[in-house]
Design goal:
Layout: E1 4-12, H1 17-31, E2 37-44, E3 51-58, H2 61-67, H3 71-79, E4 84-92
Antiparallel strand pairs: 1-3, 1-4, 2-3
């Protein structure tokens, strides 16, 4: 099995930071319970508080793909619509 690392950079509307906080917390809590989730952390830029970075490690790409279809991801996407103004996603593997 090849682990998959996901780095997802989000730019949020600064006005929405307070509203997103409980949505992020719920998403993190639910995701960490998923089969195949090794690491699921959210970071916030010190230089620009409207920039967030998810750092995720999954046992396999299939586990991550299943994650993207979960109810809590769908709920987060619906609840945060319009709050996230930009995103970039990188699928990565550990350098050996």
């Amino acid at each position: 099995m090849t682990e998959l690392t996901i780095v997802a950079k989000l730019a949020i509307d600064p006005v929405c930071a307070t509203g997103l906080a409980p949505l992020f917390r719920k998403l993190i809590e639910e995701t960490r319970k998923e089969t195949g989730c090794i690491l699921y952390d959210l970071h916030r830029s010190k230089a620009d508080p409207s920039v967030y970075l998810f750092y995720e490690t999954w046992q396999t790409r299939a586990h991550w793909q299943a994650h993207t279809k979960t109810a809590h991801i769908q709920e987060f996407q619906a609840a945060s619509k319009g709050m996230i103004v930009g995103s970039e996603l990188l699928e990565m593997s550990k350098f050996k």
